């Protein structure tokens, strides 16, 4: 993990109408780290990701204040929100495959970006599927519908599709909510490899998943930062906050 700062949040506050869901958040995320975000339901974890890649823009009643900087530039002042979202990939809790072949699911974004040569597309599709630990299972049926894959395979296809943008940052929102433990562990191994090339933000309700993967972990509760520290500290017997200890120990949640 690099000590170089990749993402900076400064006094980020988010409200949906009269309801404030994130309150004055300020912290840094380092380049090439896996940054875990844990907390009870309705604590603002998904909303945080949506602010970072600006999909929060699709919520009419959302009001955002403060700054989110990626490589020193405010995401709300970017010249192209589409370029921003290519830089910041997102994987949703439930796999949402395009009604296309496996190949076309992964080739869709490069084609939109102007890649036409089939040899380049072939190589890119294979690379992304390999990175998502899916290539060996689908290489002989790339023309099959992606929606016909199993749930775990569809989630890995979703990751491959996110990787097809060649993102610098990968946001994962409860990626393992609908897949089996064996597939979950396979994807976790993938993430450990991917961190060499990108920064990963991992939102999870599975505290032990954060413990296994994250370099540092942020504990959110009611939209506020309770604690942010190295993961081994968060999951120790003596984190800075009693709330942190009680949450990771399963005393409340």
Order of helices and strands: EEEHEEHEHHHHEHEHEEHH
Spatial strand sequence of the major β-sheet = 6-7-8-3-9-10
Low-confidence stretches: none
Instruction: Identify the overall geometry.
Output: globular
Mean pLDDT: 92
Structural category: alpha/beta
Number of strand elements: 10
Taken as a percent bin, the fraction of beta residues is: 25-35%
Main sheet summary: 6 strands, mixed
Radius of gyration: 18 Å
How many H/I helical runs?
10
Helix percent reads: 25-40%
N-to-C span: 30 Å
Task: Give your account of this protein's structure.
With 253 residues, the protein is an alpha/beta fold. It is 35% helix and 26% strand. It contains 10 helices and 10 strands. A 6-stranded mixed β-sheet has the order 6-7-8-3-9-10, with helices on both faces. A 4-stranded antiparallel β-sheet has the order 2-1-4-5, covered by helices on one side. Helix 3 (102-112) crosses helix 4 (118-131) and helix 4 (118-131) crosses helix 6. The longest helix is centred in the middle third of the chain and has 14 residues, at 118-131. The protein is globular. It starts with a strand and ends in a 5-residue tail after the last helix.
């Amino acid at each position: 993990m690099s000590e170089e700062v990749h993402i900076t949040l400064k006094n980020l506050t988010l409200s949906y109408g009269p309801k404030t869901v994130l309150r004055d958040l300020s912290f840094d995320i380092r380049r090439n780290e896996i940054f875990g975000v844990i907390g009870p339901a309705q604590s603002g974890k998904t909303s945080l990701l949506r602010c970072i890649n600006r999909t929060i823009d699709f919520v009419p009643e959302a009001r955002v204040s403060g700054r989110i900087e990626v490589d020193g530039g405010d995401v709300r002042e970017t010249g192209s929100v589409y370029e921003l979202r290519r830089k910041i990939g997102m994987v949703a809790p439930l796999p949402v495959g395009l009604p296309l072949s496996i190949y076309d699911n992964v080739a869709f974004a490069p084609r939109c970006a102007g890649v036409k040569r089939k040899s380049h597309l072939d190589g890119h599709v294979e690379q992304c599927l390999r990175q998502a630990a899916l290539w060996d299972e689908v290489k002989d049926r790339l023309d099959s519908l992606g929606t016909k894959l199993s749930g775990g395979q569809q989630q890995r296809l979703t990751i491959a599709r996110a990787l097809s943008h060649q993102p610098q940052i990968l946001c994962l929102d409860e990626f393992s909510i609908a897949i089996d433990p064996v597939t979950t562990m396979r994807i976790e191994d993938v993430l450990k490899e991917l961190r060499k090339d990108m920064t990963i933000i991992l939102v999870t309700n599975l505290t032990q998943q954060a413990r296994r993967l994250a370099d540092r972990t942020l504990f959110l509760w009611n939209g506020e930062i309770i604690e942010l520290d190295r993961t081994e500290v968060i999951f120790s017997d003596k984190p800075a906050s009693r709330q942190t200890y009680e949450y990771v120990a399963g005393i409340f949640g």
